[in-house]
Design a protein that fits this description.
This protein is an alpha/beta fold. It is built from 13 helices and 15 strands. Strands 3-2-1-4-5-7-6 form a seven-stranded parallel beta sheet. The chain has a six-stranded mixed beta sheet with strand order 11-8-12-15-14-13. A two-stranded antiparallel ribbon has the order 9-10. A hairpin with a 2-residue loop joins β9 and β10. The chain binds NADP nicotinamide-adenine-dinucleotide phosphate. The site of NADP nicotinamide-adenine-dinucleotide phosphate has 26 residues, from α1 and α13. NADP nicotinamide-adenine-dinucleotide phosphate binds next to α1 and α13.
Length: 368
C-alpha cells in the first residue's frame, strides 16, 4: 500500500509519525510525504519513499496513493477531498479534521469502542474514516466499561481542555503568557508582598500590549476561557454540540445517549480533563461501577478516590505523553438516584487525535 501523509509536520502529524514509527506501521505500507508549503524541498526523513516533498495539491501525485492520512486541517480537506474522488480516486481518506465527521460517507474511528462498525464499514466499501473530537474520544475511552454494558442514560461533561487543542501557536502563546506572568514576579522588589505582585500581574494581563494574546485573544495563563470553537447555536459552542452527535455516531446504536455540558479551555499543555456527571440506568454500588470501568479497555488506569492518589495520578502532569486514560473521583452523587461523578484525564494528541488514525490504517490493511 502506498500511503500519503499530509500534515506530518504539524502537531497532530508529528505525534502520529512518532507513534507510527514506534509501532512499525511503515513495515506494512510505503509512506510518501506531502506538503502544502514546501513542495520540492528535501524530505527530512530517510524512511519516506520520496526524496523530495510532494505537492499536497498535485492531484496526479495524490491519485497514486492507496490511502492518505490527512492531519492538515479542515481547510485542506474542503479543498481536496471532493475533487479527488470526483477524479475517480479509489483510495482511503483518513482524516483528523472535523469537516467530514458527520458526513454520511464517513465513519468516526475509535476502534477500542467501535471496531465492529469500522470493520463492517471497510467490508461494505466505506473509504472515509475520521478521528473523533478529542474530548469525545477521551470520554468514551474512559467510560467504555459502562457504555459497553448499555448502562449510561446521559452524561454531563464539564471539560478542562488543554492549549494544544487549539494548535501549536496557541500552545506557544500559553507558554509566553506564563513567562510574562513570571517576569512580573521577578521584576517585583523582594519587599513587595504577594498581593502587590498579583495586582501588577492582573494589571498586565488586562492589557493587550503588555500580555501576549494574539492567538487566544484573551489571557489563558493565569485565567481560563469558557468558550471553545465557533457558535453553533445561540449560547452553544460547536465544541459542546459535537459531544452528543459524535458520541452517538461513534456508538452507532439506535437509542442515543444524551450528552451535553460546558467546554472550557484551561492553561494545561496537552491533556484534556473532564468532570463527568453520569446518569446510569441502574442503581449500582460504587464498587460495581469501579469494576466495570476497570474492565473497559486496556488503557483505562483506575485511580482510587483518595486525595493522595487523585493528586498524584489523576492529573495532566502525570498522564501527558502516554496512552493511559486516568479515571477516578468516582462516587455516587447525593442529588438524585443513579447519579455518579467521574473525573478523567487523557493525552489529547494521542487518543484524542493521532492514535485512532494509525489504528484505523492497520484495520484497513488487515481487512482488505
Ligand atoms: P498544526 O500544528 O497547525 O499543523 C498544520 C499544518 O501547518 C502542518 O501540517 C504544516 O503544513 C503547517 N505548518 C506551517 N508552519 C508550521 C510549523 N512551523 N510547524 C509545523 N507545521 C507548520 O495543526 P494541528 O494542531 O496538528 O491540527 C491539524 C488538524 O487536526 C486540524 O484539523 C485539527 O482540527 C485536527 N485536530 C487537532 C487536534 C489537536 O490537538 N491539535 C486534535 C484533534 C484533531 P505544511 O507542511 O503543509 O506546511
Amino acid at each position: 500500500m502506498k500511503l500519503g501523509l499530509v500534515g506530518w509536520r504539524g502537531m497532530v502529524g508529528s505525534v502520529l509519525v512518532e507513534r507510527m514509527l514506534a509501532e512499525k506501521d511503515f513495515d506494512h505500507c510505503t509512506p510518501f510525504l506531502f506538503t502544502t508549503s514546501q513542495a520540492g524541498q528535501a524530505s527530512p526523513y530517510e524512511w519516506a519513499a520520496n526524496d523530495t516533498l510532494l505537492d499536497a495539491y498535485d492531484f496526479n501525485a495524490l491519485m497514486e496513493m492507496d490511502a492518505l492520512i490527512v492531519t492538515q486541517g479542515s481547510d485542506y480537506t474542503q479543498k481536496v477531498y471532493e475533487d479527488l474522488y470526483q477524479k475517480g480516486w479509489q483510495g482511503y481518506w483518513i482524516d483528523a479534521a472535523s469537516h467530514l465527521r458527520m458526513d454520511n460517507r464517513s465513519e468516526i474511528v475509535l476502534d477500542p469502542i467501535n471496531a465492529n462498525l469500522i470493520k463492517d464499514a471497510i467490508l461494505s466499501g466505506t473509504k472515509t474514516f475520521v478521528g473523533g473530537n478529542c474530548t469525545v474520544s477521551l470520554m468514551l475511552m474512559a467510560i467504555d466499561g459502562l457504555v459497553r454494558r448499555d448502562l449510561v442514560e446521559w452524561i454531563i461533561p464539564m471539560t478542562y481542555q488543554a492549549a494544544s487543542g487549539a494548535g501549536a501557536k496557541s500552545m506557544a502563546e500559553l507558554i509566553n503568557q506564563m513567562g510574562s506572568i513570571y517576569q512580573t514576579k521577578t521584576q517585583a522588589s523582594p519587599s513587595e508582598n504577594i498581593l502587590a505582585i498579583e495586582k501588577q500581574i492582573t494589571h498586565n494581563m488586562q492589557s493587550e500590549e503588555r500580555f501576549p494574546q494574539s492567538e487566544f485573544g484573551v489571557p489563558l495563563g493565569g485565567s481560563l476561557i469558557p468558550w471553545i470553537d465557533s457558535v453553533k447555536a445561540p449560547g452553544l459552542s460547536k465544541e459542546e454540540w459535537k459531544a452528543e452527535v459524535e458520541t452517538n455516531k461513534i456508538l452507532g446504536r439506535e437509542a442515543s445517549i444524551g450528552v451535553d455540558g460546558l467546554c472550557v479551555r484551561v492553561g494545561t499543555l496537552r491533556c484534556h480533563s473532564q468532570a463527568l456527571t453520569l446518569k446510569l440506568k441502574e442503581d449500582l454500588s460504587v464498587s460495581e461501577v469501579e469494576e466495570y470501568l476497570k474492565e473497559g479497555n486496556e488503557w483505562v488506569r483506575y485511580v482510587e478516590n483518595s486525595p493522595e492518589a487523585s493528586k498524584k495520578y489523576l492529573t495532566p502532569a502525570s498522564i501527558s505523553g502516554g496512552l493511559d486514560i486516568a479515571v477516578g473521583r468516582l462516587r455516587k452523587l447525593s442529588v438524585a438516584p443513579n447519579m455518579y461523578s467521574i473525573f478523567t484525564v487523557g493525552d489529547q494528541l494521542l487518543w484524542g487525535a493521532a492514535e485512532p488514525l494509525r489504528r484505523v490504517l492497520r484495520l484497513v490493511l488487515s481487512e482488505k
